[in-house]
Amino acid sequence: xxxLALGMLHIIHRDGLADIDFIKKHVQGYDELVNDxxxxxxxxxxxxxxxxxxxxxxxxxxxxxxxxxxxxxxxSGLSRxxxxxxxxxxxxxLPAVVGAWQHLGxxxxxxxxxxxxxxxxxxxxxxxxxxxxxxxxxxxxGEMLTNPSGTAVHSLYVFSSNPAITAPDQNVVRKGxxxxxxxxxxxxxxxxxxxxxxxxxxxxxTSVEHDDIYNSxxxxxxxxxxxxxxxxxxxxxxxxxxxxxxxxxxxxDEFFKHSxxxxxxxxxxxxxxxSKDDQNLILQGEPVEMTLPENYKLDFKTPSGKIELxxxxxxxxxxxxxxxxxxxxxxxxxxxxxxxxxxxSFCEVEFDDPExxxxxxxxxxxxxxxxxxxxxxxxYNQRGSVRIKGYYDEEVxxxxxxxxxVWWQSQSSDPNVGINVLTADRPTDQGWGSTFxxxxxxxxxxxx
Length: 448
Known about the structure:
Layout: H1 2-14, H2 20-26, E1 27-28, H3 30-38, H4 43-50, H5 54-66, E2 71-73, H6 84-98, E3 107-109, H7 121-124, H8 141-146, E4 155-159, H9 163-166, H10 170-177, E5 183-188, E6 200-203, E7 212-214, E8 221-225, H11 238-248, H12 260-269, H13 276-283, E9 288-289, E10 307-308, E11 331-336, E12 359-361, H14 363-368, E13 376-381, E14 384-392, E15 400-404, E16 440-445
Parallel strand pairs: 1-10, 2-3, 4-5, 5-6, 11-15, 12-14
Antiparallel strand pairs: 7-8, 8-9, 11-16, 12-15, 13-14, 13-16
């Protein structure tokens, strides 16, 4: 993604398509970008790295720059690489250079929370004096559970997650979950694979059994969801369990005595960006689209007040090409989304499909490895291996393998492991993000 964006930026500059007036007024670091990066990052170099032909790249760059209001919807997948942060930063440079932000409907929409109307301040209680927190990224769960010289983890409380399936480096994670001296509690609505490793399984409420507030995700609407029925059986919400644990641990802070509804009231009423009328509507259960201030797209919340292509305070001050991690293997593995599930959520549903987990491979690649359409194959790297049936697909780029969905173990093509046995716990270049797509594998016909 970085290579393609830099190639496009080179073309936009070279062909006089940049909006210089907008850049002078609203962008910091364009000259540095041109002189230090773009002049040497030719379309030919970009094409070699990203696989898009020079002709298509030029066509795309011109179409984008000449559009009346160019708009980019930035997804999350391209951030799941070792250079994920740089991918996002570089793509964000495109609307800046062509001045897209000044046009109605133009710009870029991501899932970042910079434009949030309600935040986490009420729940995080940052003003409370507490011991220094340990940095324990979820992607490092396997290492934390198995590394005797690292951070000691004696107990594990799992909620809203299924790490036995969704965490990277699955073999190491499951080895850690098997520790006899690890006390594990799983708070869940369904009996997931992680429940099999638990000492105690607690039943959780569904969204119709507790009060909650729902922030926007790719839009500007906020709403509450108040419970419709009492919790079934002994089910409890996340907050109810946390509050009860705090009481039993002797934490006397008044914060833990609040109900979910009271906390929702605080979250909404303390937001300085929501009008009182809208606050009342939200608390009444109405979904409310936020009112955006005039000219909000040109109000950049940076120290300079501009879009900072050059940020002197960042560890990488200027956007540039950074390579992904990769592995010592010939095929990139893309673990895409299956529209029937979300990560491993909804896997509890019964599907009218006897083969949920399958592999797609370009026929030309398959023939090199003597793989017939529908053959069972083994894909593997230094972290593990998965048996899966491979099917020809002309749409899959050569050198790439594609599988969709993160399925529960009972639905996996391999009786012993899931697809995340192949992924790594390596972090992104910034922010401790996951790198689920930055994985390469070998392939061979499976032994009978």
